[in-house]
Amino acid sequence: MKSGRQRIRLGRWGEELAVQELRRRGYEIVERNWRCQAGEADIIARRGSVWAFVEVRTRRGEAFGTPEESITARKRARMQAVAERYITEHGLWEADGQLLMVAVEIDRAGRLQRVEVLEMD
């Protein structure tokens, strides 16, 4: 069983990999771990006029399923609420927004298996 510290370290590593992949795809990273009353966006990024609200899910091994399987309808709704709050607070009325998920999978030996950016909406 993983300790809380190991889980946090794994999550941070996954977020770093997500940032690298988003930058590789031409996104500018605007915010990280942005919080509001509705919840948290792991990453807020922009590419042109599109603002992306990103949830990063990192999984080691298959015991808890795939990163995609961990996104519930409730989590998706919370992400939408966070995106709406950010857009409102920053006056981005004309912006196009999208919800993204970055799936990071690592095998039991600690080798990176994939980093994949997926649209959620």
What does this structure look like?
The protein has 121 residues and is an alpha+beta fold. It has a single domain, classed as Trna Endonuclease, Chain: A, domain 1 (3-Layer(aba) Sandwich). The protein is 31% helix and 40% strand. The protein is built from two helices and five strands, in the order αβββαββ. It has helices spanning 4-24, 73-89; strands spanning 28-36, 39-47, 50-60, 96-106, 112-119. The chain has a five-stranded mixed beta sheet, with helices on both faces. The longest helix is centred in the N-terminal third of the chain and has 21 residues, at 4-24.
List the helices and strands and how they pair.
Blueprint: H1 4-24, E1 28-36, E2 39-47, E3 50-60, H2 73-89, E4 96-106, E5 112-119
Parallel strand pairs: 3-4
Antiparallel strand pairs: 1-2, 2-3, 4-5
Order of helices and strands: HEEEHEE
Q: Spans with pLDDT under 50 lasting ≥5 residues?
A: none
User: What is the correct CATH architecture?
Assistant: 3-Layer(aba) Sandwich
Strand order, largest beta sheet: 1-2-3-4-5
- Calculate the mean pLDDT score and round it: 90
Count of β-strands: 5
From the alpha-carbon coordinates, what is the Rg to the nearest angstrom?
14 Å
The CATH topology label is Trna Endonuclease, Chain: A, domain 1
Quaternary state reads: single chain
Query: What summary fits the major beta sheet?
Result: 5 strands, mixed
Q: Please identify the structural class as seen in this structure.
A: alpha+beta
Strand content range = 35-45%
Question: Which geometry do the CA atoms define?
Answer: globular
Can you identify the CATH class? Alpha Beta
Helical region count? 2
Helix content: 25-40%
